[in-house]
Amino acid sequence: MAKNINLTSQEWIDLIFEGKNKSYGAYRLRQSSGKRHLYAFIVVVIATILLFVAMSLITTYQTQKKSKEAMT
Known about the structure:
The protein is rod-shaped, with a radius of gyration of 24 Å. The longest helix is centred in the last third of the chain and has 39 residues, at about 35-70. It is built from three helices and no strands. The protein has helices spanning about 10-15, 25-30, 35-70. The protein folds into two domains: about 1-30, no CATH class; about 40-70.
């Protein structure tokens, strides 16, 4: 049974919060956790890509600068 439980499904969330105060805030947070996790993942991927692009540009700039200095 434990293998087939989807911890992000609406049925599971309703089961957990059955008979509990759903207006407290945790229920709403649990419902939107999938969106938050996806958003966080996308932000991390974009930040990582930007970091590698920036590192590549800096390395290219420094290499070109050194080659110009060597020529003069």
